[in-house]
Amino acid sequence: MFPEGHPYAGLAPPLLVLTFVSGLVDAASFLGLGRVFVANMTGNVAFLGFALSGVAQLSALASVVALTGFLAGAVAGGSWRRGVEAGRLFGPLVAAQALLAAFALAAETAGWGRYAVLIPLACGMGLQNAVVHRLGVPDLTTTVMTRTLTGLAADRGGRATVRRGVSVTALAAGALCGGLLHSRSGVEGVVVAVLALWLAVALAGLRWHRTQEPPGR
Prior knowledge:
This protein is mostly helical.
């Protein structure tokens, strides 16, 4: 199922977990933070256009804030230690996502308002997209499914088809679980789950990198 021969093929399972988390976090933001996405920026751009056209249920400001936070995270994730091999940065950057989720959780618990929760989550997703872009594992973008679905429909069956199908399923499952969790525990419950999963992925990334180190180092 996973891409053979790719230097970061061993990170495919953690990347699938990040795909699941993308569904979780977008469920929290859309259902609990005012009809806005923090992972799916294509949807956010469309929401911004809808809001500017006068759709009452959508906020142009919320879309702009999410887009700005996402871009800030992506810039940070793309520029940090640019010359370093991407696999070494996976664990630390996901750990930074977990710190941002912890801040979002504190903001939600303290009642600081939706933007105090929205901004760190959007920054975290920008970081995630930057590190995933640097890794370049085929069909495991963790957030954008348009190209994955196109390949699933247009290409012949094979390992890539299975990988694409699992990726799409992981995102949908995350959204489903996020919706169910939000209905029971609100934004706070979803962010707790996001924080726990980001911590688990960060640890998995660090362990994977240690296995790649030459003996004696």
